[in-house]
Amino acid sequence: MKHPRRLLLLPALLAFSLSAVAQTADPIELHIQLKGLQKGDRLYLTRPEDNRTDTLVATRKHRAGLILTVPKTQEGFLYYLPEGKTREDLLESEVRSLCLQPGDRLTVKGHLSALGKAKVGGGALAAEYSPGRPRGGG
User: Fold this and answer.
1) pTM for the whole structure
2) Do 29 and 56 form a contact (C-beta atoms < 8 A)?
3) What is the pLDDT of residues 54-65, one digit of tens each?
């Protein structure tokens, strides 16, 4: 009689395993190369869909990076808020939109003073989010 009990547990274990795999997403690597960025400066990546903001700290001059996980493809907004400024000052800061897709390795290159025009490379949809190009690849 022990054999049928094992068969009853099998579907439950299989369903649990599949749900755990479905919730795990490949990490996104975000590499920042911005002239004017100094070691210790902070950039912020806001993800409205997740109601989350991540902080990227420049580890050396002109460079910052972050590895993050998102459950599905979504838009993120990268911005810089200099020390001494408040969140209200964000309305005056430049913002760079990014398409965050699980498994991507994105590179953002440009100048800190023109963050909104920085070039994005490496992502599957990076061309759609390049400056001067309409969204949707058109």
Assistant:
1) 0.69
2) no
3) 999 998 999 999
